[in-house]
Amino acid sequence: MTKVENLINLSKYPINEPDSPQFKKVVNHVKNELSQDGCSVLSDFLTDWGLESIANEAEQRKDQAYYSESKLCNVYLAKGNPKESKDHPQNVFMERSNGFITADFLSEGTFSYSLYHWEPLRVFLAKCLSKQKLYIYEDPVSNMIVNVCKPGQTFNWHFDTNEFTITYLLKGAKSGGCFEYVPNLRLKDDECFDEVKKVLDGDRSRVKRLDLRSGDLQFFLGRYSLHRVTHNNGNTDRLLLIQSFTEAPGIVGSKERVKDLYGKVTEVHNKRDGEQNRNDNLLD
Question: What CATH number should be reported for the domain holding residue 240?
C-alpha cells in the first residue's frame, strides 16, 4: 500500500472500497448522526502511524502558527452592528486566542497534503454528507489548516463560514480544550438571534460536549451549529487538523476574512475576492 493508505484505519473504515458492505454501513451511520444533530465522529479513523506522522508535521510547524492581532470576535467572526443593541449577538465580542498553521506550510510532500488530496477520501466524505461531489477548496491559505490552542488559549462561540468541516484531532488538551456545540441553532433562512443570545447569556440547556480522542475524524455542520473550544487548562498544546471542501470548483475565501484569521492573502484572493459558494443569506 502507498503511504496515504497507511494513514487511515482501512480495516475498520474501508473508504477505498465503496461497494463493500462496511463502507455503506459507515456512510449510513454518519448520515444518521448528521441528520440528528449535525455532528458525527469516527473513532480511531487514523492509524497509530498515520496519527503520529500527521501530528509530527503539525508539531514541527506550530511555531509558524498565526495569531490574530484581534483577540476578540463575535459568533459571526465579523464586525459588530451599530444598529443593534449592545447585547445583541452581533455586538457581543469574546476571546479568540488560538492560532492557525496555514495551508502553505502543509504543502505537497506532507502527509497532511496527501490525505487531503486523496480522491477516495473525497468520495467517501461526499457520500457521508449526501453531496454529489466534493472539490478541493482552492484557497491556498486556508483550505487545510491546523488549529493550535496553547495552554490558556480558547476559540469561543462561533458559526463557521462553510456548511461543513472535516476535522482530525491530532493532540488533545490534558485538561480543558473541550469541543462544545449547540446543534442546529440557526436555520438557512433564520438567524434565530434570541436562541443565540440565550447561549451567550449562559444557557446550557442545548449545549453538547464531545469527548474527542486523538485520531478521531469529526464531521460537523458548523454553519448552523454554534460551537467553541473551551480554554486549554493543561500544559500541552491542542492540535486539530481541519480540511475544507466545496461543492463547486474554484472557490476561495474572501480577502478580508482570510487576512483577519490567517494574517496573509495571495494574488488568488485579490483576483477572486468574495467568491463564496453560498446557499443561504446568513451572517458570516
Answer: 2.60.120.620
Question: Closest Cα partner for 103 from 135, 53, 62, 142?
Answer: 142
User: By C-alpha distance, which of 228, 138, 222, 154 is closest to 185?
Assistant: 222
User: How would DSSP label each residue in 123-166?
Assistant: HHHHHHTT-S--EE---TTTSEEEEEE-TT--EEEE--SSS-EE
- Give the domain extent around 145: 3-271
Distance between CA atoms of residues 156 and 227, nearest Å: 8
What confidence tens digit (pLDDT) does each residue in 115-124 have?
999 999 999 9
Q: What are the tens digits of pLDDT across the range 10-24?
A: 999 999 999 999 999
In a domain? residue 28: yes
CB of 90 closer than 8 Å to CB of 283? yes
Residue 211 falls inside a structural domain: yes
- Provide CB contacts within 8 A for 254, sequence distance 6+: 269, 273, 274, 276, 284
Other residues' Cβ atoms within 10 Å of the Cβ of residue 234: 17
**Rg of the Cα atoms in the chain:** 18
**Nearest alpha-carbon partner for 157 in 96, 237, 85:** 96
- Give the total residue count for the chain: 284
In a domain, 242, yes or no: yes
Is position 276 within any domain?
no
Q: Is the predicted pLDDT of residue 256 greater than 90, yes or no?
A: no
Q: Average of pLDDT values for 157-178?
A: 95
Query: Cα–Cα distances in Å, from 104 out to 58, 190, 206, 235, 255?
Result: 13, 36, 37, 28, 16
User: pTM of the full predicted structure?
Assistant: 0.94
What's the total number of domains in the chain? 1
